[in-house]
Amino acid sequence: MELFDVYPLYNVKPVKAEGAYVWDENGIKYLDLYGGHGVISVGHTHPKYVQSITQQLNKIGFYSNSIQNPLQQELAEKLGRISGCEKYNLFLCNSGAEANENALKLASFVTGKSRIVSFKNAFHGRTSAAVAATDNLNINAPINLQQEVTFLPLNDIGLVIHELGKGDVAAVIIEGIQGVGGLDEGEKKFFKKVKKACKKSKTLLILDEIQSGYARSGQFFAFQHHKIKPDIITTAKGMANGFPIGGVLISKRIKAKYGMLGTTFGGNHLACAAAISVLDIIEEEHLMDNVNEVYNYFLKEIKSVPKIKKVKGKGLMLGLEFDFEVGELRKKLIFDKHIFTGGSSNKNLLRILPPLTITKEQVAIFINALKEVLV
Ligand SMILES: Cc1ncc(COP(=O)(O)O)c(C=O)c1O
């Protein structure tokens, strides 16, 4: 059988990884500033993380949600405390798209409405409901959906108020910082006014923190830069350093009922052990402080690099915008300088999503390499 060929792949086969580095089968060492779409939060093969999942696997890896799993409770408590979101309940699932799908479903249940408001260039995943809340980026084919979605320009509060005023919107879904779409973000006053308009029209506000969350932006969740309180927060990617897991943080005002949501694999023992160890490492190694320190260093040093039009994003969720397409630049960085970076639907944007453990020295390696390839 052949693979269903949906991914354009670089010709690199990683066989080993440690911290911010990956080695290929020929022993070439790469600096990983992309972390497999931003999932590597505490660094590749972090010893504590490896130990936690190995030990857990030798006890019990999986049993379904029909029996008690104290690790889910431990994860919920730690996540609540470390993120400052104690006033939410946690539903565990397996991926970002699934988290958003559950969030949108929940919003429909709670409000009795079905229309969703989302924003241009948003990306919320590829299951039916999540695709529904994804702008028509050319990577998503339109499909037949039960939940109608209205896409609005980011930061146009007048249009948001107008749509919510119609009274049929279940939820507004918005990324803390847009990822795949190219690192645009809502302004502080926009987030605040959206929250107010949601409250007034009894619409739920869903913050998709799947990429921008888990300390990546320099706050635990990117919306915390704006001091608002969403009704639902979705998370995945960095949550278990690459182990598949997703979470829906649900305001305590929304009451759970048996059978309302469900999953076979979600919150399994192994996924919880992985996620707990990620939170422990974020806390013990003060990774949020590291994100902010390295970000400040990055902002200072990047000024010395020519041809950059704009630096976008926050913390270690960064984009460098050029006035040319970055495809060739990314190839040169991988094959000449051995540095992984990312792209986005904005073809002129180089995306940087390194492990949160990255050091200033490693950023300096990137800056020097970038200067050399841009000559
Ligand atoms: C903001 C955002 N939401 C949702 C998703 C979907 O997550 P997953 O690929 O785990 O389904 C992504 C993935 O890139 C994302 O960046």
TrEMBL record:
Cofactor: pyridoxal 5'-phosphate
One Pfam family from the record: Aminotran_3
Entry keyword set: Aminotransferase, Pyridoxal phosphate, Transferase
Coiled coil: none
Taxonomy, superkingdom: Bacteria
GO molecular function, one term: pyridoxal phosphate binding
This protein's record includes keyword Flavoprotein: no
PROSITE patterns: AA_TRANSFER_CLASS_3 (PS00600)
Recorded family membership: Belongs to the class-III pyridoxal-phosphate-dependent aminotransferase family.
Protein's UniProt name: Aminotransferase class III-fold pyridoxal phosphate-dependent enzyme
Organism listed in the record: Gramella jeungdoensis
